[in-house]
Amino acid sequence: MSVSVRLRSIGVAVAATLASALAVWWLLWLYLLGPIGYSAPERFEYSDEPYQVFVYGTLKQPWVRRFIIGRTVDVTADTLTGYARDGLDLVAAPEASTTGLRFEVSANEMQRLDRYERLGVRYQRKQVVLDSGSQAWVYRRIAVD
Predict the structure, then answer these.
(1) Rg, the chain, Cα only
(2) Distance between CA atoms of residues 13 and 54, nearest Å
(3) What is the residue-wise DSSP string for 55-116?
(4) pLDDT digits (tens, 9 = 90+) for 47-68
(5) What 3-state class would DSSP assign to 37?
(6) Which residues contact 130 (CB under 8 A, 6 or more apart)?
(7) Burial class (CB in 10 A: 0-12, 13-18, 19+), 67
(8) Nearest to 102 by CA among 79, 68, 83, 70
(9) Which residues pair with 83 in a beta bridge?
């Protein structure tokens, strides 16, 4: 096999890999942040004040926050006492505590987080007081009867 054929094969493989990665990125955006498949609840209004958010799951990952929020945010480790993590949810447990991260976002970024968490469909938002004394919003699964 000649060098030019090998280089061409490598180029095709690299192009296919990049195209696949771009397609996956686009589909994730379309599903998680795009207009298809989710309508925000009408009862929520957003203020111009910054929002403090406490996360304990996938949003602890820097790349997930960057993808969803659209920028890198400064995070602070914090703890929520009185709740235990149960899979993708927090359940009330007086003797338990859940560690996570706290950060601040704008109203537009909060809307992006609400979209990601499917506020009103899959999760609800609840304001809690963390061990640091900070008040923050936390997402909890909506109970299905």
Answers:
(1) 20
(2) 42
(3) E-SGGGSHHHHHHHHSS----EEEEEEEEEEETTEEEEEEEEEEEEEEEEE-HHHHHHHHHH
(4) 889 999 999 999 999 999 998 9
(5) coil
(6) 54, 78, 79, 80, 102, 136
(7) middle
(8) 79
(9) 92
DSSP 8-state class, residue 36: T
Could you tell me if 128 and 54 are in contact, meaning their C-beta atoms sit under 8 angstroms apart? Answer: yes
DSSP per residue over 38-49, as a string?
Answer: ----TT----SS
Q: What is the pLDDT of residues 69-108, one digit of tens each?
A: 999 999 999 999 999 999 889 999 999 999 999 999 999 9
**Six-digit token string for 94:** 């007086």
User: What Cα–Cα distance (Å) separates residue 141 from each residue in 66, 123, 126?
Assistant: 23, 4, 10
- DSSP 3-state assignment of 124? strand
pTM of the shown model: 0.74
Reading the block at residue 122, the tokens are 């899959």
52/133 Cα distance (integer angstroms) = 12
Pair of tokens at residue 111:
């809307």
20 φ, ψ to 5°? -65, -45
Can you tell me the distance from the alpha carbon of 114 to that of 117, in angstroms, rounded to the nearest whole number? 5
